[in-house]
Amino acid sequence: MGLVYADIELTNCEDVALARKHVIGENEIRRLNLNMLVDSGAYMMAINETIQSQLELPFIEKRKVQMADSRVVEYDVVGPVNVKFANRKATCSAFVLPGDSEPLLGAIPMEEMDVLIHPLRQELIVNPEHPNYAVLKMK
Hints:
Layout: E1 4-12, H1 13-20, E2 31-38, E3 45-48, H2 49-55, E4 59-66, E5 72-85, E6 88-97, E7 104-105, H3 107-113, E8 115-118, E9 123-126
């Protein structure tokens, strides 16, 4: 299977909360539309420093991650960030990769949105068993 990309909207959750309280206007909510690599083998979402500077997501902590080549690297974790694909939404945190590294959508936000990678079409799709809303497993 080749690489799969999807159009994803990222939104600063703090901005959404401020807009609900009428502290800022809806037009001031920081959001970006991105074409992200979909990687079901990665747990979390990863953005890069450029995306982080545009969304200004709050710093949560530093965490160590093991890379595919077994190196352990420490990255900032930021969030919360709203993630939207088609008629699905998730709220999660994200690792911040250096520079303009390729952003990626991992398994945790994919599970929350109840989306799948269609192997033949090589694209991200909403779960056809639940086309109108996400269903999460609680067991």
